[in-house]
Amino acid sequence: MSAITPDQARTVLREAELLCPPEQIETALDRLAAAITAQLAQRDPLVLLVMNGAFATAAPLLQRLQFPLRVGYLHATRYRGATRGGGLDWIARPWPAALAGQVVLVVDDIFDEGDTLKAILDELRQQDVAEIYSAVLVNKRHDRKVADLTVDFVGLEVPDRYVFGCGMDYKEYWRNLPAIYAARE
User: Would the pLDDT of 60 be above 90?
Assistant: First the structure.
């Protein structure tokens, strides 16, 4: 159960600021697809989606990747419906599980501080993947990033605010929005 009601979620959206309209999202997805294609089209990648956030980014992104690839998923979270992260919780380990020797692209919704993404990439490296890449729709601009983590493919930059839409949620709501909003401060 969510920490807020649907009526409260409607109020959050009504009071939010539109940061990235759908047209800007589409352009960012085109850029992401072009960059990923240039790097991985000949590499037979396994694309792992980080659930739940990546589904909204991954579906239109994968449709733009016009080369053979395989798709799997994993589910790790630090938020559990909250607006601040805690410890990493593995809900579903990477699937398929046989990752040794694979070229892997991890797709997530946002690179905020990077704790979740770093833990995911570290887990995958322990499984002897041949190469590992990461892609996010959104990079949040601030100086609190974890050390030694760089995302290979980034679609958009947003300010250091609480954002939702395009797979990112506000207390479990609004992942389904086609645009990115910032919650009222």
Answer: yes
9 touches 178 (CB < 8 A):
no
Q: In the chain, what are the domain boundaries?
A: 6-182
Residue 158 phi/psi, 5° resolution? -130, 160
Q: What is the pLDDT of residues 79-98, one digit of tens each?
A: 555 555 567 788 888 876 78
pLDDT at 2 over 70: no
Cα–Cα distance, 54 to 63 (Å, whole number)? 14
Distance CA 97, CA 123 (A): 11
Q: CB of 94 within 8 A of CB of 127?
A: yes
- 61 neighbors 67 (Cβ within 8 angstroms): no
Q: What architecture is the 6-182 domain classified under in CATH? A: 3-Layer(aba) Sandwich (3.40)
- Find the helix or strand (DSSP H, E) in which 8 lies: helix 6-15
Long-range own/partner contacts, residues 82-86 (CB < 8 A, 24 or more apart): 82/3, 82/171, 83/162, 83/170, 83/171, 85/113, 85/115, 85/116
- How many CA atoms does the CB half-sphere of 116 hold within 13 Å? 27
CB 99 within 8 A of CB 128: yes
Bridging pattern class, strands 163-164 and 180-182? antiparallel
